[in-house]
């Protein structure tokens, strides 16, 4: 119900009466405190939790890290990350992506790439979210060429970009009036089997000559319908093969 002060009071009463907490109860409180922005209180609770012999898991650590990243307290987030490693709790893609997003949001791409490389060295494969975070920020900071290079790296690593990666890139290229590259990237997107979304449609319509919006709309809708038909046809073929 959102009564966190009261929840904390009940928790303190439990401790005073010698009733030991459970991992589930501590996790619930940590999550709710982080949602409210009380990250320091959540971390204090995590330390108290460990004093009772209860172990934090990677989800709780990541939640605390996210809380600090959201408040731009990256030193605190990294301190927790190092504590996580020290106790032998292995971070996952979500943990790394949370930290990368925090550094990228502050424009600290060098630190984000250090984490990216550490992630790879630990045997974790960067995923679509990892690259989408960096592509979006590069485009926002008018570093479109860096974003394009990152997109090419994704393709070389067999990581399929989603429509959001292409949308931010096409929008950034349009702002720089690099329309030949827009057309090339749009065709590449279609060749990779990605269906345009409404954001991409409005981006293209906005940057086409005035009065050409209907032509753009029909073109995008035709591409969506063609893709949908191919998916449906593929599904029917698979069904018939199973029946045979």
Secondary-structure blueprint:
Elements: H1 4-16, H2 23-36, H3 39-51, H4 58-70, H5 74-86, H6 93-105, H7 109-121, H8 128-140, H9 144-156, H10 163-175, H11 179-191, H12 198-207, H13 213-243
Helix pairs in contact: 2-3, 2-4, 4-5, 4-6, 5-6, 6-7, 6-8, 8-9, 8-10, 9-10, 10-11, 10-12, 12-13
Keywords: Repeat
Protein name: Pentatricopeptide repeat-containing protein
PPR repeats: 57-91, 92-126, 127-161, 162-196
Order of helices and strands: HHHHHHHHHHHHH
Radius of gyration: 24 Å
Note the gap between the termini.
55 Å
The helical percent reads over 70%
Principal-axis shape: elongated
Number of domains: 3
Q: Regions with pLDDT < 50 over 5+ consecutive residues?
A: none
Structural class comes to mainly alpha
Q: Report the sheet-strand fraction.
A: under 5%
How much is the average pLDDT? 82
The count of helical stretches stands at 13
| Main sheet specs | none
Tally the beta strands: 0
Pfam family, one: PPR_2
Organism: Forsythia ovata
Keywords: Repeat
InterPro entries: PPR_rpt, TPR-like_helical_dom_sf
């Amino acid at each position: 119900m959102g009564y966190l002060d009261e929840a904390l009071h009940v928790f303190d009463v439990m401790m005073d009466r010698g009733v030991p907490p459970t991992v589930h109860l501590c996790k619930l409180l940590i999550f709710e405190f982080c949602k409210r922005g009380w990250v320091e209180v959540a971390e204090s609770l995590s330390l108290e939790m460990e004093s009772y012999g209860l172990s934090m898991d990677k989800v709780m650590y990541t939640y605390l890290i996210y809380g600090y990243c959201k408040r731009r307290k990256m030193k605190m987030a990294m301190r927790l990350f190092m504590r996580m490693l020290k106790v032998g709790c292995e971070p996952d893609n979500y943990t790394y992506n949370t930290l990368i997003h925090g550094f990228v949001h502050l424009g600290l791409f060098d630190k984000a790439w250090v984490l990216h490389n550490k992630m790879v060295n630990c045997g974790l494969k960067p995923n679509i979210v990892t690259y989408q975070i960096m592509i979006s920020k590069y485009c926002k900071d008018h570093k479109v060429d860096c974003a394009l290079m990152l997109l090419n790296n994704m393709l070389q690593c067999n990581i399929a970009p989603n429509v959001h990666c292409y949308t931010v890139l096409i929008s950034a290229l349009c702002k720089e009036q690099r329309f030949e590259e827009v057309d090339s990237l749009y065709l590449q997107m279609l060749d990779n089997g990605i269906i345009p979304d409404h954001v991409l449609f409005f981006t293209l319509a906005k940057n086409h000559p005035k009065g050409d919006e209907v032509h753009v709309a029909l073109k995008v809708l035709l591409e969506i319908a063609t893709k949908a038909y191919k998916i449906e046809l593929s599904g029917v073929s698979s069904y018939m093969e199973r029946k045979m």
